[in-house]
Specification:
By secondary structure, the chain is an alpha+beta fold. It has 11 helices and 15 strands. Helix 5 packs antiparallel against helix 6 (111-122). Residues 282-377 form the M23ase beta-sheet core domain.
Length: 382
């Protein structure tokens, strides 16, 4: 993405090509002074339209909302928002059709999950349109067929009542019996790696780790709103990220660090004086000291919800959902070892200890969130 310095450079080069270098410098200086405000506006708009690299919160809110587009928004940019809203309406229809096919009581496919990826792929594309068939193919990548088992009542093949009425009174073979029956159902696909493999086959597009992280944040902003995303401009407060899978699948927790965690704790959850600001403030989890590069392991089975680099506070961090609304967060990592949508088992290496973000030394910051409420990790760790 071009910045103001790059834009100014190319204005100077254009002027230089029009005449000699001396004239070019003079003309470039005049053009720079005159056009700099417009350059800055263009650069800001480029930043807003580069959804795959660093999505703009306002663009997301305007596209996913139904309110009036502010009059101050440039006409071309407003056009992109209008086109995206029209595509979203078609996607809503496709998702609604899929949800109508789900088994009664099933967790529905989240329309914003589908639309977030579509937004990240297409916002800013010229003359963006989406036909119903295309929308159904796109949304179809987010569901799978699964085998379920139900108990049904069927005629008992051994039921053969006697004709004699007296014998019939003592006949105790049931007329029907209950049997287990397999049947196919459509369910939302939980493994985003599977979804992105299907989208790659459908579209030929690549989905690198940073793109997936941005798409995940777009989803959480659209689904939970700006308050849940928090005040930091470069990412959401992951402690509010919730796993909406109905059943807990995490199993027993294990230590996130090899060799145990209890003797590594340097800061407890709760109130403390911040090592960054020196002020008394709340601490959202446990800090565990370890050398840079130490393996950080998933504390329980689950799926990677976020894998984010460069957060202002958390630095590089991972959020794993364990079902039943339980998530764990691993922050200040030197590097990550997983991608969004990846299934992990307890003990799998998800990242490596570091000191990124608001940190004064190499350590793991671990948080546990249970249905939107922060819990002390000590209550869960072995």
């Amino acid at each position: 993405m071009a910045g103001p310095v790059t834009a100014v450079y190319w204005i100077r080069r254009a002027a230089a090509l029009a005449g000699n270098e001396k004239t070019g410098n003079a003309v470039g200086t005049i053009l720079t002074a005159f056009l700099l405000p417009f350059i800055l506006i263009i650069v800001c708009l480029c930043g807003m339209m580069d959804a795959a690299a660093d999505h703009n919160r306002a663009a997301v809110e305007w596209c996913f909302g139904d309110g009036a587009i502010p009059a101050a928004v440039p006409e071309e940019y407003a056009g992109h928002i209008t086109q995206m809203r029209a595509c979203f309406a078609v996607l809503d229809g496709a998702v609604g059709k899929l949800n109508a096919e789900l088994e009664e009581g099933s967790v529905p496919l989240r329309a914003n999950r589908v639309k977030a990826d579509f937004f990240a792929l297409n916002f800013g594309a010229p003359d963006l349109t989406l036909r119903q068939g295309q929308a159904e193919s796109f949304a179809g990548c987010y569901v799978s067929e699964a085998v379920h088992i139900r108990t049904v009542e069927v005629p008992n093949p051994e039921y053969d009542p006697p004709e004699d009425e007296e014998e019939l009174e003592d006949y105790d073979v049931p007329k029907t019996i209950e049997v287990e029956q397999e049947y196919m159902v459509t369910v939302p696909e939980k493994d985003m790696a599977v979804v992105y493999a299907r989208l790659h086959a459908l579209l030929g597009a690549e989905f690198p780790e940073q793109w997936r992280a941005n798409a995940a944040e777009i989803f959480y902003l659209a689904e939970y709103g700006a308050d849940a995303v928090g005040g930091m401009s470069d990412g959401l407060i992951a402690g509010l990220v919730q796993d909406d899978s109905p059943e807990y699948i995490g199993g027993a927790f294990v230590s996130p660090l090899a060799g145990g965690w209890k003797n590594r704790v340097t800061s407890e959850m709760g109130g403390r004086y911040s090592p960054i600001t020196g002020k008394w403030e709340g601490h959202r989890g446990l800090d565990m000291a370890a050398p840079k590069g130490t393996e950080i392991r998933a504390a329980a089975n689950g799926t990677v919800l976020l894998a984010r680099y460069g957060h202002a506070s958390y630095g590089n961090y991972v959020v794993v959902g364990h079902g039943g609304g339980v998530t764990t967060l691993y922050a200040h990592c030197s590097a990550l070892n997983v991608t969004v949508g990846q299934a992990v088992s307890a003990g799998d290496v998800v990242a490596f200890v570091g000191s990124t973000g608001d940190s004064t030394g190499d350590h793991l910051h671990l948080e546990v969130n249970d249905n939107g409420t922060l819990k002390n990790p000590r209550e869960y760790l072995p």
